[in-house]
Amino acid sequence: MPQKKGPAGGRPELQKANPVVIFAWVPAAREAIRSAARIETHAERAGFRRGRGGRWHCGVHADKNPSCSIRGGLIRCWVCNQAWNVIDLEMLATGASFLESLRTLAAEYGLPAGAVSTDPAEAQRAALARLELPAAKRFQRVLINLTDELLDTLKAGLFDPLLPAPEEGEIRSLEVLRQTIMDAADSALVHEYRIWRDRWPATVAALVQVAKCREKAEQRALAEFMARLERIPQKADA
Ligand SMILES: [Zn+2]
User: 31 alpha carbon to ligand 1 midpoint, in Å?
Assistant: First the structure.
């Protein structure tokens, strides 16, 4: 069934559970499963059958002429007027609840247990990390900009006799640092961000704020640019 949002979604087991737990692991597990699983495999398990011309026979209604098509991770029946993703198909095939299906699929695709943990303490840590991720990403951006500027200055010193020459290995170690920051996975990034923030709270807060302002300015500039682009063909039409 198509996924509905809000309390009317008809998933009582979700409404009963601890909201922090849901916030932390359901979205992560759902996305990981959707990208790991093939819709065809799960359609077959739920009783859908391959038919002519890439179409599928519906597993829900008696479907002599195939009425289903697969697109964008969904199988859609044009007679039932319904679409199912892999998790919906698992629920359809087994009659299990949404949460049970999510756990089964996560185990099947060997996803990290953390993604489907219901341990409230772990879920809370994951939830906090998710909340801090935007700030950590901004901090990452600022650090990269700063190292870039520093590298520019140091490299200029190699060629310009009026500038101080960089110390042995200084450029290399900065480039390694820059690469480490760029490659950091989300969890590593949040961890790194916390270390800096705990040590220099005011400086880090200011740097994150700078990145935020810069982002907003860039978004505004981009929006204005796009609006201008859209106006050009209209003028040409007139
Ligand atoms: Zn159908």
Answer: 25
